[in-house]
Amino acid sequence: MRHAKAGRLSSPSIENVAAYIYVLLSASGYQERFTVALERPGLRLPLTADSALWIEAVAASRKLLWLHTYAERLVDPADGRLARVPDVEGVGCGRPVNRLPEAMSEIAHEAENGALTIGDGQVGGVRADVWAYSVSGMQVMTK
């Protein structure tokens, strides 16, 4: 099974190429390494010739894409990615979001209790490192 899985991940399918690009562009090392080059418009997409690195990147990213699409994409029960994202202990919905925020001031995080307020809703159990997570200098939670 391990060999079959590696074969699936090493193939240049649309999903695997998208997964590779997703994980590469979201890595902090990418922004650090290409800081000067990224000052000019346009993406720089280095492709690895190392098949083991490709497989590792694609596998990690397929899980991220599964999570980030709320299990609507890349479902694979054999790899533990079911058709529903599992509940996370300590994280819960205090109040559902019925009205999206109109201003950044309507998105706030309380570090002491992990409460994240989004418009008129609230989610509990959001760690400080999750709140601070950024991609290319953009704080994801505020977007």
What key phrases describe this protein's structure?
143 residues; 2 domains; four-stranded antiparallel beta sheet; two-stranded antiparallel sheet
Order of helix and strand elements from N to C terminus: HHHHEEEEHEE
Strand content: 5-15%
Number of strands: 6
Low-confidence stretches: none
Number of domains: 2
Helix amount, in percent? 25-40%
Radius of gyration: 18 Å
Structural classification = alpha+beta
Number of helices: 5
Please give the alpha-carbon distance between the first and last residues: 39 Å
- C-alpha geometry: globular
Q: What is the overall pLDDT average?
A: 86
Order of strands in the sheet with most strands: 1-4-3-2
Taking the sheet with the most strands, its summary is: 4 strands, antiparallel
What's the layout of helices and strands?
Elements: H1 2-10, H2 14-26, H3 28-33, H4 51-68, E1 92-95, E2 107-110, E3 115-118, E4 121-124, H5 128-132, E5 134-135, E6 138-139
Antiparallel strand pairs: 1-4, 2-3, 3-4, 5-6
Helix pairs in contact: 2-4
